[in-house]
Write a structure and sequence with these properties.
single chain; 119 residues; alpha+beta; Arc Repressor Mutant, subunit A; 5 helices; elongated
């Protein structure tokens, strides 16, 4: 694809599809709980129930954030299991989600937040 001219006379830095993908990912991270969910899932799969308990938040609220992240193609299903008469759904990061997790610390640093302790 040929480079298009930007208004300042340079070349356009992003294609429209790239800009849309970035906006979708940034929108998915527009709530702090979703950043926490992504960082937590960097260690493997988990369910909204498990994360809700760990964060002391309602399952409904955390499930909503899981759906937003899945709609943004940052999470994918990773299995189910029976749990007290219901089915517990597990999720894991997609390749895009893994790439975004790698940017969380640099974004926090750019915002003036000290790096978090590594486990």
């Amino acid at each position: 694809m040929a480079n298009r001219r930007a208004p300042n006379g340079g070349t356009e830095a992003l294609r429209k599809s790239e800009a849309e993908a970035i906006a979708r990912a940034c929108g998915a991270l527009s709530h702090p709980t979703r950043a926490i969910v992504l960082a937590t899932l960097s260690d493997g799969k988990a369910s909204p129930v498990q994360i809700a308990r760990a964060l002391d938040r309602s399952i409904a609220a955390v499930s909503h954030h899981f759906h937003v992240l899945q709609d943004a193609q940052l999470l994918k299903p990773a299995g189910t299991r029976p749990n007290r008469g219901t089915i517990e759904h597990f999720y894991q990061l997609t390749a895009q989600g893994e790439a975004l997790v790698g940017l969380l610390d640099p974004i926090a640093a750019a915002a003036g937040v000290k790096a978090r302790a590594r486990r």
